[in-house]
Amino acid sequence: MTGYRLTLVTKILTIENINSGKMASNMEGSIHRGCDFIFDFNCFTCHETNRNTEAEFYCKECSKLYCNKCVEHHNYLYKKHAILGKENISLWPETDVVEQEKCKEHRKEKLTIFCEEHNVLICHVCLFHNHQKCSHLVLISDKLKQLHQKGDFNQLSATIYTQHQKLIHEKDDLEENIKSLEKSYKKILEEINVLRKTINDSLDQLEKYTKKEMDTFLVTMRTSIQTDIENCTQSIKNITCLHEDLLKIKDKSEALSFIKYRKCLDQSLKLESVLQEMTTKTEMTLTFKPDTTIQQTLSTLSGLGQILSTARQSQPFKRTTQNTDSRQNKPKDTSQSDPGHQTTSGFKVNKSNPESSTSRSYSPGNQTSDLTKLGQVSDPVSSSSHKLVQGHQPGAVSKSDQIIKVKSSKKYRMNIKGDYTCFISSICETASGELLLTDLNNHNVKLLDQTYKVVAHCVLPRSPWSMCSIDSSLMAVTVENNEVHFIRVTNGQLIKDRILKLQHHCNGIAHQNGNLYITDGRALYLYTLDGSLVREMYKDTSGYNEVTSCAVSPDGDRIYVTNNNSNQLVTLSRDGTVISTLTVRGLNSPGEACAGLHVTDSGQVLVCGYSTDTIYQVDRDGRQILAEVVTKNDVVTRPISVCYSKHTGSILVGMWDNKDIRVFKAQ
């Protein structure tokens, strides 16, 4: 190879004379600076500062080319200049072939050599100063012959042509996609208008019925009162006439006077009876008592229906539907069919059974709840009508035991103005896709948008420990002063709903099918949604802060609690029977904070290893650790909360004493 390099140098020396002054030129640039890429058009400004940058814009007035950064300064100074992008490259000036053949490092030298080791074009001065130790040097003319002999030029041309065709097809598909989106948008607007008209018609009909009933009452009551008025008028006439006759004949005839007297007395007695009857009658009034079920139903809604956006997997130039991402405004009713083929349900005003409009059934993986019957709780032992996941069979691989794998991750800042360091103690997703988290240190609940930015927050009196979803817009949060705060997500805001005051500490909380599970550090309790205690489900008195977190499987067959100090995950059946106890290394969380515990809508169990910087996945029965989903190598430190978002297919991790959350995209 040394002989080849000497031959190559000899060839170069015969082509061009090496000037000793040129060989002593500036060597301050590195091998890659200014000579690694050859562009048809170079940025004028960058070129003046010895930088090699491709031009993206051309200014006719200035007759200069600019890159993306330099054009910003140009536009700031010359706002009225017309800028031409690469879509108008035909209007740009012709390229300077001679200029392109010059070395960017040594402006008077011509590029004659290709260094394959560094993948750069160089001149003989570059060779002398920077590439003498390179073992793969070839003349540009020889390299060109090789490319022609191998057919690389033709192959590259064919590849570019194919890519060009693909880009054209892709652009056409995207333009068609926009048209389709706009068409579907207009169609949905029409459907919304029709739905709104149907609702308005139903409300108009209800108003008509109510007014008709009120008119009937008014006519009946008016008739009754008018009859009394007529009786009073007639009695007034009668008594007036008799009284006048009595006065006229008072001194004329004793017999006639007595007769008139008797008539007046009889009439007076009758009037006394009538007056007595009238004074005892109750005053008639009309009052209106609204049907509260209408307002209650409307207050739980955040929209008229569910908007579904479908992401389609691309095949060559075509796409077929693969996944459905739902961004909904609280559906009235969601289909129980295949979750991959959900459809938007309609809205119907049912006059015969208004209460039915407040019940909600979610697609598989979500529970059914009726918030209008807060005093009721389904029997966790005998209830089987709402089972959504069949019983686990030993040896079988159920959906709940499918391993979750993550790939890329990003961090997002959760602190807002006025915050101290954030302690993200819990993360939760509503059925409609809103993400909320509790910040223990700053005493608030925060609402995130689709880009994981905090868009609203709700201040609490003391530290929030845990949170769970009740329905598509209502959340329940445990606060350290023996309270459970209900917070509703309405039009991008967090609205305080109501407060339950209990007789014990409130640490972990979970909800399933109207059943509310709450821990107090020593035991797990079952409550109704209105705060009525049903019974104690599980107890551990070995320590003060033992029973902290709790979670429930989608079908309600498995209840999970964490024994904080002993690093154990306890799995219970519906009736509270202990199925298994599993030691999870690093499970213990600081102070009274709840250990991170989450069950996905598919039944997969995730547990935070606080001191091991790990998120574990546990099998459905809590007997073994299936995988380490996230580890310390994924830049997670002291995790205390975890949540799987089915709408984004991501795992969100909250950490102790950290302003950021980590969002991992699941594979």
Q: Gist?
A:
This protein has 667 residues and is α+β, with helices and mostly antiparallel strands.
Annotate the secondary structure layout.
Layout lengths: L1 H14 L4 H4 L20 H5 L8 E3 L4 E3 L1 H10 L5 E2 L12 H4 L12 E3 L4 E3 L1 H7 L6 E3 H11 L1 H97 L5 H27 L11 H9 L5 E10 L2 E11 L77 E8 L10 E6 L5 E5 L4 E5 L5 E6 L4 E6 L4 E6 L3 E8 L2 E9 L7 E4 L2 E5 L3 E5 L5 E7 L7 E6 L6 E5 L4 E5 L5 E6 L13 E3 L5 E5 L4 E5 L6 E6 L8 E7 L4 E6 L4 E7 L1
Antiparallel strand pairs: 1-2, 1-3, 4-5, 4-6, 7-8, 9-32, 10-11, 11-12, 12-13, 14-15, 15-16, 16-17, 18-19, 19-20, 20-21, 22-23, 23-24, 24-25, 26-27, 27-28, 28-29, 30-31, 31-32
Description:
By secondary structure, this protein is of the alpha+beta class. It has four domains: 2-159, no CATH class; 160-289; 298-358, no CATH class; 404-666, 6 Propeller (Neuraminidase), CATH 2.120.10.30. 28% of the residues lie in helices and 27% in strands. The chain has ten helices and 32 strands. The strands form nine sheets. A four-stranded antiparallel sheet has the order 9-32-31-30, with no helix packed on it. It has a four-stranded antiparallel sheet with strand order 10-11-12-13, with no helix packed on it. Helix 8 runs antiparallel to helix 9. The radius of gyration is 41 Å and the shape is elongated. The two termini are 48 Å apart. Mean pLDDT is 78; it is low at 13-35 and 316-397.
